[in-house]
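$ ./design --mode recover --in tokens.txt
reading tokens...
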């Protein structure tokens, strides 16, 4: 399995949302069956939790991040058709920026 470059994912998520986002990984039971959770504090700070028991590959983590970022972008907890389409578009962007970041790292 390839190493997960968390810094690249973090930079992309910050870029997409236009604000710093804290990404935390959990291996505990608190997240249960949830692959990811998003929390927005009263000060506007955003934390995305990734369930590392259920998401460990780059593709899985990108899917979780895209899902949660779509909730933030749409400001809705709904799993609507719009949410699915938004998450798909965000996942594509995250994947492209991730691959570009990896390429740049290899060429420097
Ligand atoms: Zn959701």
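writing sequence...
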């Amino acid at each position: 399995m390839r190493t997960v470059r968390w810094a690249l994912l973090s930079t992309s998520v910050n870029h997409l949302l236009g604000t710093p986002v804290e990404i935390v990984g959990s291996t505990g039971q608190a997240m249960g069956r949830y692959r990811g959770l998003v929390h927005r504090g009263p000060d506007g700070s955003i934390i995305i939790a990734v369930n590392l028991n259920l998401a460990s590959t780059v593709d899985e983590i990108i899917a979780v991040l895209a899902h949660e970022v779509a909730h933030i972008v749409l400001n809705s907890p709904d799993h609507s058709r719009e949410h699915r389409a938004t998450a798909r578009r965000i996942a594509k962007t995250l994947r492209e920026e991730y691959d570009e970041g990896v390429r740049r790292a290899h060429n420097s």
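exit 0
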